[in-house]
Amino acid sequence: MRIVCIGGGPAGLYFGLLMKKNHPEHQVTVVERNRPYDTFGWGVVFSDQTMDAMNKWDPESAAIIKDAFNHWDDIEVLFKGTRQRTSGHGFVGIGRKKLLNILQARCEELGVKLKFETEVNSDLDFPDADLVIASDGFNSKVRNAYKDVFQPDLQQRPNRYIWLGTNKQFDAFTFDFRKTDHGWFQAHIYKFDDQTSTFIVETTEDTFKAHGLDSADQDASIAFCETLFADTLDGAPLMTNARHMRGSAWLNFNRLICGKWSHFNGQSHVVLMGDAAHTAHFAIGSGTKLAIEDAIELTRQFQIHGHDADKIPAVLADYEEIRRVDVARIQNAARNAMEWFEVVGERYADTLPPEQFMYSMLTRSQRISHENLRLRDAKWLEGYERWFAAHSGLNVEPDTRSLPPMLTPFKARDVTLKNRIVVSPMAMYSATDGLINDFHMVHLGSRAMGGAALVFAEMTCVSPDARITPGCLGLWNDEQKEGWKRLADFVHSNTGAKLGCQLGHAGRKGSTKLAWDGIDQPLEEGAWPLISASALPYLKHSPVPKAMDRTDMDRVKADHVAAAMRAAEAGVDWLELHCAHGYLLSSFLSPLTNRREDEYGGSHENRARFPLEVFRAVREVWPEDRPISVRLSCHDWYEGGNTPDDAVIFAKMFKDAGADLIDCSSGQVWKEEKPVYGRLFQTPFSDKVRNEVGIPTIAVGAISEADHANSIIAAGRADLCAVARPHLADPSWLMHETAKIGIKSVAWPKQYYSAKAQYENNLERAAR
C-alpha cells in the first residue's frame, strides 16, 4: 500500500514506523510542516500500560524511549500552607521534542520517508495514496474539510492555562494551589528530563481577567506566575517556547469528540488519528498516550485482516469500533479530572480541609478508588482513614486499624447513624390499602438486621389518590400508622438501624398498574383522578391530570402534614420529602412539567413555591430533634429541563427552609429523557450540591461496592450513600462488603454470630 501520514506528531510517526516494520513493502510517507528534529511543547506523560504496549510492538524504539524517561512515584500537593505527599503512583515523563526525535530517527532507520517543512492543505494532494492518516492535530484541515462526515463535536472549556517550563527539578508530580484576592490558581508540575520540568498554570476565566492577564503579553504573564509561585520555584525562572504565538499564550482547552473517524474521498481512504480525532485534558496527561494507542490498534487491525488495500474498509471499521470504547473511557476520566480543576476554587479549595482536599484531588478522575489507593500507598491511606474517623468523632486507638469512611458515624440533628450506608426507598408494590404487612416487616426488617444505618421504606403516599399503584404504602390513616409503629418497634428492638419514611404524592404518574403488570401503564379498572402542576399526561395515552388550584394545594399540604405527624407518632427516626422523579412536587420544580403562568410557574422561586410550602409545613410539625432530607432530581436529562445548576438553586432554597440533607437523584421526570448511565453516574450531582451549597448530601445510583462508598464519602462527594438494588440482592450487603475488605469489627445480629467467623474465614481462604 501507499500510505501518507499528514502530521509528524506521535500518532503519524508511530503508525508509520509500525507499518513499515511489519510490512516493509509499504510505501510510507510522513509529511510534517515543521523543520526536521524541531517541535514545540514541553514534557508528555505516559502510563506503564502504554509503555508495555510500545515495548511489544517495537522494542527497539521502546528501549530508547525508556532510557530517556524520567520516572517518579510520588504526588505532592501544596495547599493552604501544607505539604502532603503520597507514593506508589508510577508516572513516566519525557520531553515531547525528545520523543519525536526518537520516533523520527526510528522511521528513517526503517525506511519511512519523512518530508519536513511541507504544508498540506488537503488529503486530495495525495491522489495515489491508498490510505491517508489525518494525524494533523486538533486544528486538522482534513477533518475540517469533511465536517459533515466526521461530525466533530467541539467544546471550548472555561479555564485558562499557560504551558511553561522551568529548570528547577521536582522529584514528585507536584500540584501547587495558590489563592489570590481574585481567586485560585493551580500549577501542574513534573520533571521530564534531567534539566527541565513542565510548569502548567491554570485558573478560571474570571480570575484570569480580574488579574488583567487577558491584556498581558507573554513576558508579563510569566512574571506574574514567577511571583505567584516564587517560593515553589526557589528563584528559578519560568520559560516559554511559544514565542511563535501572539498575545499572552494563555489558552482554553478544547474538548473534541468525532462521530465518525474514517471516510473514502473518492480516491483514498482517510482516517483520523490522535488529536485530529479526539482530545483528552492534560489533567490526566493522556493526549500522547491516546495517539500512540491509536497507532498500535490500527496496525493491529492490519495484522489481523491483512495488508492489502482491499482490506482497508474492514480494518478501519474494526479500528474505530475498538478505539471508540477505549477513548471514551479515557475521555470520561479526563473530563472528570478537568472539571475538578475547573471548579476547584468555588467547590473544594475554600470548603475542604487540606487532608480531604488531597484525597479529593487524588481521586478526581474516579479511576482511582479507595482500595486502589491502598495498593499504591497503604501507609498514607491508613493515615487518612484515621484522620477521617477522628474527624467523624471516633476515638481511634493507636496501632489499630481505623474504620473506613463508610463505617464512621454521621449525626443529623439528634439522630446519629452508626455508619454511612442507607437502604434506598424502593417501590415494592405489595401493600393492600396502603398497609404495612408481613412482607414489609420481613423485607425491611431483614435489611435493618443486615447492617445498614438507615432503612427507608418505599415512597409512602399521603392520600389514596397520591399512590403510584394500588400496591403502594400509605400513611393517611391511623391503621396505617399502627403498621409503621410495629415496624419501628421491631427495627429499634432488634437492630442498631434507624427507620426512614419518604413521604410523597405520585401526581401525574399515579393510577398505574403494578410494575410487573406494566410499569407506568394506566389502570384499566379502579383508576382515580390525577392532579399535577400542569395538565400534561406522563405517557401519551395516560390520563390527563388536573392542573392544581389553591384548594388542591391546601389539601395536599394538609395531607403531608397529617402523614408526617403519624410518622412521628409511630417512632420513625428520619423523614424525607420526595421532590424528584416527576412525582407531584417534582412536577412543580421542572420546567418540562410546569407550564403554569401564575405565581407557581416560571422562575425558580415560583416553581419551588409550592414544594417549599409543603416542606415548611411538614418541618413545623416534625420533631425538632429529628432530621428531614429532600430528594431532588438533579438532572432531567432532557433539553429544556432542569440541570445540576438548577439543582443547586433549589437545594439552597430547601436548606434555607430547614432541610438537613439533599438526596441527590436524577431523571424520571420526562419519559423521553436521555440519561447517561455509568458507574457512580449520579455522584457528581451530590458532589456539586454538597460543596457548592454547603449542605450534607446523600449519593445514589450504581453504588454497588464498599470501595465505591468509601471513595465517595472519603472525598467529600457525599455524606451518606444510598444503596438500592444491591440491597435487594443481598439484605446483608453491608456486613458482607465490610468482611470483603477485612473489617471484622462490624457487629452481626447475635442470632447470626456463629456464621460471622465462618464467612470471614472463607473469604480469607479464597483470597490465598
Automatic annotation (TrEMBL):
Q: Does the keyword Oxidoreductase apply?
A: yes
Q: Does the keyword Oxidoreductase apply?
A: yes
> One GO MF term, please?
FAD binding
Residues forming the FAD-binding domain are 129-325
Tell me which EC number(s) this protein carries: 1.6.99.1
Q: Which PANTHER family match?
A: BLR3436 PROTEIN, NADPH DEHYDROGENASE C23G7.10C-RELATED
- Protein name listed in UniProt: NADPH dehydrogenase
Q: Which gene encodes it?
A: namA_1
